[in-house]
Design brief:
Blueprint: H1 3-10, H2 18-24, H3 35-45, H4 58-64, H5 69-83, H6 87-121, E1 125-130, E2 133-138, E3 147-151, E4 159-171, H7 173-176, E5 182-183, E6 202-203, E7 208-220, H8 226-233, H9 243-273, H10 277-282, H11 286-293, H12 295-312, H13 317-334, E8 337-339, H14 342-348, E9 353-357, E10 368-374, E11 377-381, E12 392-394, E13 397-398, H15 408-417, E14 422-429, E15 432-438, H16 441-451, H17 457-463, E16 466-470, E17 478-484, H18 490-493, E18 508-514, H19 516-522, E19 526-529, E20 532-535, H20 538-553, E21 557-566, H21 577-580, E22 585-593, H22 600-609, E23 613-617, H23 622-631, E24 640-643, H24 644-649, H25 652-658, E25 662-666, H26 670-682, E26 687-691, H27 697-702, E27 705-709, H28 715-720, E28 723-725, H29 730-770, H30 779-788, H31 791-797, H32 821-851, H33 860-865, H34 874-895, H35 903-906, H36 912-930, H37 935-938, H38 945-972
Parallel strand pairs: 9-23, 9-26, 19-22, 23-25, 24-25, 26-27, 27-28
Antiparallel strand pairs: 1-2, 1-3, 3-7, 4-5, 4-6, 4-7, 8-28, 10-11, 10-22, 11-12, 12-13, 14-15, 16-17, 17-18, 18-21, 19-20, 21-22
Length: 977
């Protein structure tokens, strides 16, 4: 730790005032620090990140590859072979074992690096003020002295000394164990002995903002934070194993147990077949001397049996699965979906329902005020997006001056002053300016509407400084601010009734914006009409309600604004929101439109064709939700919309039944989402749920796949979710589901490829041994086959782009085993096809060598029928078996590229990785036959043209059988799941 870091760490900033803290760090409490200072501090203190334990050394990774019972058996067999004098074979087996271990290490390292890169991409974001500008940066780039902005839903990115706190509460259970959120106060100065939980003027890394907003000066980063102290004492490394990996591990253990049993049977049968009782009884010393005489033959049989066990267990399968999942996650990132957990990749492929927010996900999230209602009349507002260019039109005429429309100035100022959003412009191109909103998009629409009449945020906030605020929350459905009313012409805008207190006695104004029914409910006495405050009559209320319904029917989101005058106000008065937000003067309505994304309707239809249902959940009114639902093709004549109020009246069984014809839920609160998720899951649906707020976290966690918004989502939502959308677009969810299906399909492909090949290898040796044939494959050949025909093609299968019709089938059941009935039949079929092809090649090789033997009295046909192999050349037959099995698996790797489609439609060259794997494996296999010094190592010999012709013809049988099986599957209309 540097001296500077130690100094920052040891200072007790809770005992200092905000001014003293800012002075120490050279931080301006309004403009923050400058970029030059940031560079210096970053070099001095390093990045704001907790140090992790270093990865295990290479030698430990290598050693872990040998912590396997079957591998130990092979090493023992290699040693035994060496003791018997078979040094070439022993060395070859050990070399292959080492090569397998190195490949395993490389595969695991690649997976870890890929996951580390994904973790880096998921780094949290912090909002800072530098050089007077608000910026969103990676939290790891924070430095001591940075001025950070904190809002509800944020994770605290570093330890900070608060300099401003408005109704600010922090949940510190992860640090102090205190379950109740702590209310913070930036103005207090504490004693030196204040405990961590009592330091109410500070906030600490990793804790969560649950309410309000604040600013703070960073006083500690990385290991110099309170969280860093804990990290020093306990370095935790999280190893995530997905359900699929657990499933495959269990499968591997089962296969290993069965293969070891079969190998023992093979060994015992082979020993019995090679044992001559007459020789044993005639040998001095009996059984012991017999085994000593035939130790070489017995050790060979033992090595074959152990090698068969190695070949039967696909040890590289977990590593290949991890790489496939990691590579698939990288593909999802390209499609704007960041998957935070490997397990979500598997679940995505089974998703059957997508519960989506409306704003920003199904729509453009470019909230634009297009209509206003003031005192009985409508105004249309022109302009697009967040550009502050547009006009206000009433009765077909453009409003040139604010004074021409009574109440317009009041409404625009009330909306602006009660919003925290800001317009930011950037250069999009030569002469082209791009405008975007920092903050809530709906508030952005109000800010832009005011800017269209020249009312800018900065001057307005300077003229009318805030004294206090009550932030928006989903239960109150409104937000209020208190600001001074003594500057400018505020009292001309915010009038009061003549029979009440005189305006000159009023020093403060409360501006409120929120849901129309909420604001109207708080306006029990007055409203603004034609620029005057008048009592609210029943006719007025009916007029307002009619206006709300009219705007909602036009698919507009409706916000109401109002105000209240105070003679005096200060935060120390400790008034409740109910006491502040009463006797409101109702001003008017803003109609805000968020047009649907053009790409959403086709994506919804694509999801529907894939058997995936889309459910829209929104806080808007039912009429607005219905209009949007119809515009994107989500609602038909039979569908209905359920409101939050109706949902409250429903029991769980009633809600489950209502889901038969309900695709839209309107006017719902976050806790309703949980009920919807539970009801869908009760119908055996696999649910993906979107969310962006703090209160959405339970629903995100309760869903099978929690999807957070990357742009508008809070840190709490992102941390809870399994997946984060970097563009907040529904289309990205559908693309992620498609990629999840592709990944799962690719895993199925190489699992089927590996298991069917390995089971065939077992059956070849088992059947040959059972009928008294010599072993068709040498131990070293089995190991080499397991290495070259399993590893490279399996990795190539993981790179498949997926079948073009993968979204034309319903989702697989969530609990479906990866080795299902279809795959079991496929494994059985391939076992028979490959075993038949290889054993045929072996028998043909034996027959031809008997025919070529020097003894003219030997009848090759009778020798074959009587299993008399003493005149045959096993070396030639084993080479034919070895070549046939190699070609069988390599040819079949192409047919496995699609689970349904013909290889002629998929194409032989569409996956370059498969071509490379095929050529590499082919070269390595042929080198063991044609390279002279490798022939004795791999027990091979040269084959003539006729023998190669037989080998190639027999090798095509499994591929042809595979294509016929897929043809039957397609014609039967059966699904793979």
């Amino acid at each position: 730790m540097s001296d500077a870091q130690a100094k920052v760490r040891n200072n007790r900033w809770y005992t200092e005032t905000t001014e003293e803290t800012a002075r120490y760090f050279n931080t301006h409490l309004e403009y923050g620090i400058n970029n030059v200072e940031v560079e210096r501090l970053l070099r001095q203190h390093g990045f704001n990140e907790l140090k992790e334990n270093p990865p295990p050394p290479f030698w430990r990774l290598i050693l872990s590859q040998f912590q396997n019972f079957v591998v130990m058996m092979l090493i023992f067999a290699s040693i035994l072979s060496g003791l018997m004098g078979e040094w070439i074979e022993a060395g070859a087996i050990m070399a292959i074992v080492l090569l397998n271990a190195i490949i395993g290490v490389v595969q695991e390292s690649k997976a870890e690096h890929a996951l580390a890169a994904l973790k880096q991409m998921n780094a949290p974001v912090a909002t800072v003020i530098r050089d007077g500008a608000h910026k969103n940066i990676s939290s790891r780039e924070l430095v001591p002295g940075d001025l950070v902005v904190l809002e509800a839903g944020n994770y605290i990115p570093a330890d900070v000394r608060l300099v401003e706190a408005i109704n600010f509460r922090v949940e510190e259970a992860s640090l102090t164990g205190e379950s109740v959120p702590v209310e913070k106060d930036a103005s207090v100065v504490l004693e030196d002995d204040a405990a961590l939980g009592d330091q109410i003027n500070c906030a600490f890394m990793g804790t969560i903002v649950t309410y309000g907003r604040a600013k703070g000066v960073v006083i500690g980063t990385g290991m110099s934070t309170q969280m860093g102290y804990i990290a020093e004492e306990l370095q935790a490394i999280e190893h995530e194993q997905t359900p699929l990996q657990k499933n495959l591990d269990y499968l591997g253990k089962q296969l290993g147990t069965v293969s070891i049993f079969i190998c023992l049977v093979v060994f015992c049968v082979a020993v019995i077949n090679n044992t001559d009782l007459n020789v044993i009884t005639s040998t001095d010393g009996g059984m012991f001397e017999y085994f000593k005489m035939y130790s070489k033959e017995l050790s060979g049989l033992f090595i074959i049996a152990v090698s068969l066990a190695i070949a039967a267990v696909p040890e590289g399968l977990p590593a290949v699965v991890t790489i496939t999942l990691a590579l698939g996650m990288r593909e999802m990132i390209k499609k704007n979906a960041l998957v935070r957990r490997l397990s979500a990749v598997e679940t995505l492929g089974a998703a059957s329902v997508i519960c989506s927010d409306k704003t920003g996900t199904l729509t453009q999230n470019s909230m634009t005020v297009v209509k206003m209602w003031l005192g009985g009349s409508f105004l249309n507002v022109t302009g697009e997006g967040y550009s502050p260019k547009g006009s206000f039109v009433r009765d077909g005429k453009v409003v040139e001056r604010l004074e021409a429309v009574p109440s317009l100035k009041t409404a625009l100022y009330a909306g602006l002053l009660s919003s925290d959003a800001m317009i930011e412009q950037s250069q999009a191109g030569p002469g082209e300016v791009k405008h975007k909103i920092i903050g809530d998009p709906t508030e952005g629409g109000l800010v832009v509407a005011a800017a269209k009449f020249g009312i800018e945020r900065a001057p307005a906030f300077h003229s009318y400084p805030r004294l206090d605020e009550i932030p928006f929350d989903s239960d109150r459905k409104c937000m209020s601010v208190v600001f001074e009313a003594t500057k400018g012409n505020t009292l001309d805008m915010f009038k009061w009734g003549e029979h009440d207190m005189k305006p000159q006695h009023m020093r403060c104004v409360i501006a409120i914006k929120g849901a129309p029914d909420v604001v109207l409910g708080k306006s029990t006495c007055y409203m603004l009409a034609d620029g005057n405050v008048v009592p609210v009559s029943n006719d007025h209320r009916r007029s307002i309600v009619t206006a709300i319904e009219s705007m909602s029917e036009d698919a507009l989101r409706v916000l109401a604004v109002g105000y209240r005058l105070f003679p005096d106000y200060s935060p120390e008065m400790s008034m409740t929101p109910e006491e502040i937000e009463r006797d409101i003067v109702f001003v008017g309505l803003f109609g805000i439109v968020d047009p649907p994304r053009m790409e959403v309707p086709p994506a919804i239809q694509r999801a529907k064709s894939a058997g995936i249902r889309t459910v829209m959940i929104t806080g808007d009114y039912p009429n607005t939700a219905m209009a949007v639902g119809r515009s994107i093709g989500l609602l038909d004549q039979q569908s209905r919309v359920i409101s939050g109020a109706q949902l409250e009246q429903m029991g769980n069984d009633e809600l489950i039944k209502a889901l038969d014809d309900t695709n839209v839920f309107a006017r719902v609160s976050p806790h309703h989402k949980i009920r919807i998720v539970e009801a869908l899951r009760a119908r055996n649906a696999v649910v993906a749920m979107t969310g962006d707020g703090v209160n959405d976290a339970p629903a995100l966690k309760g869903a099978d796949i929690g999807v957070a918004m990357g742009i508008t989502g809070t840190d709490v939502a992102k941390e809870t979710a399994d997946m984060v959308l970097t563009d907040d677009n529904y289309v990205s969810i559908v693309s992620a589901v498609e990629q999840g299906r592709i990944i799962y399909s690719n895993i199925r492909k190489f699992v089927f490829f590996l298991l069917s090949s390995n089971v065939a290898e077992i059956m070849i040796i088992f059947l040959a041994t059972l009928v008294g044939l010599p072993s068709p494959l040498a131990a070293v050949q089995l190991l080499w086959l397991n290495l070259i025909t399993d590893g490279a093609p399996a990795l190539a299968l993981a790179m498949e782009k997926g079948d073009p019709d993968i979204m034309d089938y319903p989702p697989r059941p969530k609990n479906e085993k990866i080795v299902n009935s279809v795959m079991k039949y496929g494994i059985l079929t391939q076992m028979l096809a490959q075993s038949g092809a290889v054993l045929s090649a072996f028998v043909i090789g034996l027959y031809w060598t008997i025919s070529d033997s020097a003894d003219p009295d030997v009848n090759p046909v009778m020798a074959v029928l009587q299993f008399d192999w003493k005149h045959a050349s096993v070396l030639k037959a084993q080479t034919m078996s070895y070549a046939t099995l190699s070609f069988c698996e390599l040819f079949r790797a192409f047919t496995v590229r699609s689970e349904r489609g013909s290889i002629f439609l998929v194409g032989f060259t569409s996956n370059p990785y498969m071509l490379f794997a095929f050529c590499l494996s082919m070269i390595l296999m042929l080198s063991t036959i044609f390279v002279p010094f490798l022939q004795p190592v791999f027990n091979t010999t040269l084959l003539n043209l006729t023998e190669w012709t037989i080998v190639l013809l027999l090798s095509l049988i499994p591929a042809v059988v595979e294509e016929l099986a897929k043809l039957i599957l397609r014609r039967s209309g059966n699904h793979l799941y």
